[in-house]
Structure formats: C-alpha cells, structure tokens
Inverse folding.
C-alpha cells in the first residue's frame, strides 16, 4: 500500500522567512503526490500536486513543492512566510486500490508563523 | 462556480442513533469520496461512489453506508452510532474522465458529535 510520512508535528517560522514542511513517501510504481491545507474548522484546500515532469511544482498562494525521487521526498516550500499561512498541512498520495483512486494522508504538520 | 457543499455543518447525536450526511459535488464532477477525520489525525478514506455504485471501501464497518444519486450528489449514512464516530466527515469530488492525476476537491465538512 502507498503511504506518506510527515516527520514534524509542528513547524515554527518567523514571518518573511522561508518555510519548509517535510513529506516522504513510499509507493510502488509512479507516485502521485498532493499537498492540502486546512484552516481551523474548515475542509481541505488543494495547494498543488506532482504527477510527472518538472520536479519543482508551483501551486496556490505562492507555495511550491520539490519532488526528489532518490530521497522519496515531496517537501512543501514557500520563499517568504506570512502569518496567514498558519494552518495544518497534509501531504497525500494517490492509492490505486481496486477500481477507485483514494487519497492516503499523512498525519499533518501544523505551521505556526509569527511576527 | 460552486465548490463542494456539505450539509449540515454540525450535528449532535446520541449513541445508537442513525445519521445522514449530504454532499453536492463541484460542477462537472461525477465521483464522490467520503473521508473521516478524527481530532488530531489525517483524513481516512471511507468509500468512493461513481455511477451510483460503491467502487471501493476503506477499513470501515458496514454501519457506514452510502448512496449516490443520478445528479452525482451523495449521502453518507452511519447506523448505531458509537462515541468513536465523533469526527469531521469530509466529502471530496473529482472527475473520472480527467487525467490520471485528477484532483479531489473537498467540501467544508460536517462535524459530528456523538454523546
């Protein structure tokens, strides 16, 4: 089965500094990887995905992610953090089980951006 | 263009009762997936519906059942509620005819509390 791991429960960064939220994956076959963000009492918002092609994927709100096959990682990055980026971030992998394509999520990383 | 909508927003039930949650997919989408997100955890796949049939089920008991209607909207039913069913229930929609990396878009969720 496909899986992802988010090794950090929380990441703290000062506003204006670069941020990285880590994700590693374990898949058989080609990985289809996603990042979602969740604000308090809200559903998940899609940020970006990697399917194939360029290892640097650009997404919404200035976020980008770097796919690294040799390290089996898909880290989320942003050059300059904003206080409004404070939220819960989930990495997910497409799991082609049976006839459906479900998402398997990591445990989430809470990003705290302070002034 | 309306996104994924879910109703109700919040729900309080007692043990042993039954509950029905509703989801309307994003315009143009024909596939609906349901996820359960317990407090402090990542979403867990319950099942997926396409062409009014359940395509795949996650590791959830038969107390969890669903339905998809001809207009692609969907319901999640949970019978004989347990305290452990308290969670945020997320609906996600996608388009089956898209590329292999089709994205699932999530609704705001229904917060179910079982007392």
């Amino acid at each position: 089965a496909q899986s992802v791991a988010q090794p950090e429960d929380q990441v703290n960064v000062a506003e204006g500094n670069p941020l990285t939220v880590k994700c590693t994956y374990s898949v058989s076959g080609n990985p289809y990887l996603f990042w979602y963000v969740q604000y308090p009492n809200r559903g998940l918002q899609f940020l970006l995905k990697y399917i194939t092609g360029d290892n640097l994927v650009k997404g919404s709100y200035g976020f980008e992610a770097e796919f690294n096959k040799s390290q089996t990682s898909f880290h989320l990055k942003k050059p300059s953090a904003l206080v409004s980026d404070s939220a819960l971030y989930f990495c997910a992998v497409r799991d082609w089980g049976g006839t459906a394509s479900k998402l398997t999520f990591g445990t989430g990383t809470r990003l705290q951006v302070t002034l | 263009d309306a996104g994924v909508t879910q109703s109700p927003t919040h729900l309080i039930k007692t043990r042993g009762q039954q509950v029905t949650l509703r989801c309307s997919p994003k315009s143009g989408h024909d596939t609906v997936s349901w996820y359960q997100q317990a407090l402090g955890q990542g979403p867990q796949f319950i099942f997926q519906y396409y062409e009014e049939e359940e395509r795949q089920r996650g590791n959830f008991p038969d107390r969890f059942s669903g339905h998809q209607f001809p207009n692609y909207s969907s319901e999640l039913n949970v019978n004989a509620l347990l305290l452990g069913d308290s969670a945020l229930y997320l609906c996600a929609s996608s388009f089956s005819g898209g590329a292999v990396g089709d994205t699932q878009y999530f609704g705001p969720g229904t917060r179910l509390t079982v007392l």
Summary: The first strand of chain A starts at residue 3 and ends at 5. The two ends of chain A are 41 Å apart (CA to CA). The interface with chain B takes residues 32, 34, 36, 41-46, 49, 51-52, 90, 92, 94-95, 97-108 of chain A (CB under 8 Å).
